[in-house]
Structure formats: structure tokens, C-alpha cells
Amino acid sequence: MRGLDDTDREILRLLLADARRPFSDIAEQVDLSAPAVSDRVDRLSEMGVIRGFTVDVDRSLLHSGVPVLVEIDAEPGRAGAIRDALADVEAVEHVFRTADSRVTLTATVPQSAVPSFLDSHLDFEDVQRYDVRLVADTEWTPGLGTADFAPDCAECGNTVDEEGVRSTLDGDPYYFCCGSCEARFVEQYETLKEEA
Amino acid sequence: MRGLDDTDREILRLLLADARRPFSDIAEQVDLSAPAVSDRVDRLSEMGVIRGFTVDVDRSLLHSGVPVLVEIDAEPGRAGAIRDALADVEAVEHVFRTADSRVTLTATVPQSAVPSFLDSHLDFEDVQRYDVRLVADTEWTPGLGTADFAPDCAECGNTVDEEGVRSTLDGDPYYFCCGSCEARFVEQYETLKEEA
DNA sequence: CGTGAAAGGCATTAGCC
DNA sequence: GGCTAATGCCTTTCACG
């Protein structure tokens, strides 16, 4: 399994800065041909490193409501359910689940709905406490650092190294530290899918 | 000053989902010609609604460290300074400042640096309390809702309506509720620029 | 993994309504 | 503002190393 090299990182950095920059342009910067860049972008997409291409929209110009940041302390084991319920809400943009059963999210909601917008989306059985804060400003700096490719094994959670394998299940890439983890995962995956 | 119509919103929505989708494709969806879509995208860029095009990178696959979410309670009036100091840190991706002197940020830091990475970037005189949490997972759903275009006047802060004006200063768009606000702002801008 | 050449698709311009 | 037609660029495919 291949990781990322400096060229991959440079391509990512250039695309982060401007995702519509022509590949031929990028090719020149990284000393490759345009098809080579195209191939690498494809590979990064297959790997799941590139999830997609988007627009950076300045939401501060689009008053569809008030930006809020919500902190939710979940009942033990219920943070995942809360995250799933909220991620699908149209007004919600970011959802962060932290290891300590806390879910933090940002959303833009109509002024009048600030106190109540969670009511219809949250099962309060799952919630210990929550807090809605008004967002004053937001910064987003899509950087990369010296990022290296080192996914977690989907089965056991260990870091996957060069020995690892990738499987594509229903179009999504999964990584495994070894063949037996892969086999175990795929088997369970198939079973769950059959049941559904 | 023109705002956003349904077609603009639909274009934004389509681009949010896939910024490389061909304009001819988008054109078909919104019942326009490709050049018309191109013109609208240009206009949205000039307005500052579209800040740029980027890649959605899955940072959970790029272990340059551990994803953390940090909550900082600032001393009164110091939240802005904290935000500015942290926004420039390479490892930091999102910074949210809420109205109650709280700064919430996400970052990816080397395992060993989790407890200490803030030390070099934070003036602890400004901090009442802070908390570093490990992020288990992240969701990002760039949605739009029924977003309408209503920027704040750069001079007085009031919402700008159709009567408002746009000025472009050094390539960046600024909005004003009226001509006198614009004049005042531009004058101050020029002065500050001369001094620098 | 990479290249260069060719083909096909796409954004953009120009002229017009 | 929008359209159609035409131009020129960009991505992608292909054959090859």
C-alpha cells in the first residue's frame, strides 16, 4: 500500500488553495505532466484522502440566520446516535464527537429558532446537558502540515502501515492492518448488509 | 445591489456538493446555458459569497497527529487576541469564537504534543481555563438552507439591503448600507494604508 | 509511474436579443 | 440577464517505456 510523497502533498496543497487550478498548471509546479497529476488526484480520491471538491462559501454574508455553536453532553454510549441524528439536519454544518461523550456542532438557525431548533432533532433521553452559544466569528485554515498517510485499521483500530491492505466496500475505501482483519471485517459487513 | 435568487442558491448547492461538476451540467439542472452559469459564478465570486474552490481532505487518514478539540475560556475581552494567535498555527484548522469569550478550535497535533502544543501559542494571561479533548469523529455537511444575501455594513455594522453599495478595496469586496458609510470607511482605509 | 500526442469535452468569448 | 455559436484550453485516453 502506497502512502503520500512530497509530490502528493504539494498537489493537495495547491488544490486546497484553488481546486479549479488546471492540472497542467499544477503539473508545471510539481514537475510532472498533466496526466500524471490527474492520475495522482484519482489515486488520492480512491484512497479517500480527497473526499471531494467544494466551494468555500462566506456564510457571514448569507444571513439565513444566526450561527451557533452547540455543546452536548451525551448519556454514556449515546454520543454516536446524537451525532448521526444531527449530521443530517440541514442547518448543521460541522459535527465533532469527542472521546468523552461530548458532541460539539455548528449550525446556522433563524433567530427565533435558536432556543428551540434542537428540540425536534434531539432525543433528550440521550442528553445530559447542552449549551447553545452564539458564534461571533469563524476561521478556517485548510492546511496540511507534513501530513502522512496512516489510516486506522477499520477492524482493530491499529495504525495501518505499508503492509496494510485497502478494500472498497460499496464504493467507500476501508483500510486494514492485515488480511485477517480484512476478512473478519468483510464477513461482518456482509452479514450486517444481508440483515438490512 | 443584487441579492441571491433561487437559481444562485441552487448553483451554490450544486457546487458545494461537487465543485468540479461541469458548468454545462449545472446549467442543465437550473435551466440555463453554460455561459449564464459561468457569469453567475463570477458574480458570486465578486460578491465575496464564493471565497474560492477547495478540496475536502479527510484528515482522519492523514495522521500527522491526533485530532483534538480545544475549548478555551478567555479573560474578558481577550478572546479576539486568542483567536488571532491560534488561527495562524499550522496545526489548527477551525477556530470558532463565541459571544461569551469562549474560543473553540480543532487541530491535529502529534501524539506527544497533545498536552503541550498550546503552550507556545497561547498567552496564559489571557486564559481562564482550557480543555483539550480527543476527537473521535468529524462530520462536515456544507449546506446552505434558504440563505439570503445580507452582509453587514463594514462601517456601521447594520444589515445592508438593496439600497446598499459595494466597494472593492485591494481586490476584496466591502459592503456599506449607504454612501456616507462608504465614504467614511474608504477615507479611514486610505489613511491607514498610507501610514503602513 | 511516468511520458507525449491526439481526441473529446468544457469554459469562455463574441455577437445578438 | 440571457442565448447560440465558435474558439481555445484542459482533461483524459492511448500507446509506449
Biggest chain pair interface: A-B, 69 and 68 residues
Which percent band covers the strand fraction of chain A? Answer: 25-35%
Subunit arrangement of the protein: homodimer
Strand order of the largest sheet of chain A: 3-4-2-5
Report the uncertain regions of chain A.
none
> Averaging pLDDT over every residue of chain A, what do you get?
92
- Rounded to an integer in angstroms, the radius of gyration calculated over CA atoms of chain A is 21 Å
Largest sheet of chain A: 4 strands, antiparallel
End-to-end separation of chain A? 32 Å
- Overall, the morphology of chain A is flat
**What pattern of helices and strands is seen along the backbone of chain A?**
HHHEEHEEEEEH
Helix content of chain A: 25-40%
- Would you tell me the structural class of the helices and strands of chain A? alpha+beta
InterPro entries (chains A, B): ArsR-like_HTH (IPR011991), AsnC-type_HTH_dom (IPR000485), HTH-Siroheme_Decarb (IPR050684), TRASH_dom (IPR011017), TRASH_HVO_1752 (IPR056526), Tscrpt_reg_AsnC-like (IPR019888), WH-like_DNA-bd_sf (IPR036388), WH_DNA-bd_sf (IPR036390)
Protein name (chains A, B): AsnC family transcriptional regulator
GO molecular function (chains A, B): sequence-specific DNA binding
Keywords (chains A, B): DNA-binding, Transcription, Transcription regulation
